Amino acid sequence: MSAPQAPPAADSLTPVQRELQDRARGFVDEILIPLEEQAERAGGGLPDADVALIRREALARRLHGGLHSAEHGGNGWTHVEWFLVEEQFGRSTNALSWYVPTAYNVLAHGSDEQIERYLKPGLRGETHDAYAVTEELAGSDPSGIATTATKTDAGWRIDGEKWFVTYGDVAAVYIVMANARVDGASLPTLFLIDRDTPGISVVDDPPFTHNYPHGHPTLRFSGVEVGDEAIIGGLGGGDDLQRAWFAEERLGIAARCSGAMWRLLEETTAWAIEREQGGGRIIDHQGVSFPLADSAADAAAGRLLGLEVARLADSDADVKLVHAKASMAKLFCSEAANRCADRCLQIFGGRGYTRVNVAERFWRELRVDRIWEGTSEVQRIIIARSLERRGVEPVLHS
Question: Mind listing the pLDDT tens digit for each residue in 53-62?
């Protein structure tokens, strides 16, 4: 009879992946979480010294750059490795991980000059980019975009207004989706436009539910002149780049929501075990233990789904299938994390309704994950269409 073997890890992480996960968790526990309450009381921002600390530690611990290649200044992670890091970032509130140097995946498709000018400085933490796609009449459906790029002798003239431009108040460059007018056709095209280019104005900078370090202003582009070198991904290549951007962003939301549920369950379970009411621990009451159990089931299911999508992306699977599965992960995890935060806030009682409580902050912050990068309703449309076009088995079992 052979000796019994230790069971494999529940998520079957390799030693390299486990080390990366531990490194990311240490960064979050030691650097980010201690700054949460300070950021909350300040309305989202942190002093320059704390911002510099976050960036310095992120770079030193090699937690920057996401999926970007080492050649460009990233870490060249797989999607699974990236998911594990984003999951840990999701365990912190107030979007403090936004200070970690990174850049949108679009910039990796730039010319050598664009990579040198925009991507590499971003991955060093020197600059930031902002993605400008949403408009007043074009939200989850980008086909309604009205921003235009009109050909001129010197290049292009950009006219339009973009809403909810995350990082728009601090970005050095805007990634702008516009319809390039060529021979009577409108070609969806991405343009890189420097912040200080004449013709760019801030129309509004609305306050939002969360206290995050950066805003989401409304920007107007009025007769903004750029050259042909501002195009990224080729004329008419905007849709393909944006589809890949959406898939990555949605998987990232799933990862961070998984991390949020992890933290919520850790802190709320500890509280329920310690807190006594009516002569006993509150965790011994079904009104407390059952919501925790439901949240644990949500967290486990969402995490497994997200990791499976990450593994699928690493396998060079059909990009349209990955896109649909990323929508599934975003839909489930964002909805589950909202349920989890609401339950945990209730378990904390009056303490849960104070902004110094982690459940209250997540309760506000997680709400947007059901909206941005495509609402839950849009994710359901994408999934349903994938079932129709690719069949049930690939969508469920690939």
Answer: 999 999 999 9
Tens of pLDDT along 137-158? 988 777 789 999 999 999 999 9
- Report d(CA 254, CA 79) in Å as an integer: 13
Whether residues 176 and 218 fall in one domain: yes
Q: Domain with 78 in it: what CATH number?
A: 1.10.540.10
Residue 92, SS3 per DSSP: coil
Alpha-helical runs (H) found in the chain: 15-27, 36-41, 48-60, 79-89, 112-114, 120-123, 238-274, 286-314, 319-348, 358-365, 376-390, 392-397
Q: Are 388 and 251 in the same domain?
A: yes
* Count of residues making up the chain: 398
pLDDT digits (tens, 9 = 90+) for 245-266: 999 999 999 999 999 999 999 9
- Rounded Cα distance between 318 and 78, Å, is 17
Statement: the pTM of the whole predicted model exceeds 0.90: yes
358: helix, strand or coil: helix
CA distances from 284 to 143, 264, 350, 394 (A): 52, 19, 19, 43
Q: Measured in Å, how far apart are the chain's first and last C-alpha atoms?
A: 37
Q: What is the DSSP letter of 205?
A: -
